[in-house]
Amino acid sequence: MSRKPDPDDDAGHERLRLDKWLWAARFFKTRTLASDAIDAGRIQVNGARAKPSREVHVGDQLDIQAPEVRYSVIVQALSGRRGPAEEARRLYAETGDSLARREREREQRRLAPEPSQMLHGRPTKTQRREIDRMRAKLRGG
Question: How far is residue 5's CA from residue 8's CA, in Å, rounded to a whole number?
Answer without folding.
Answer: 9
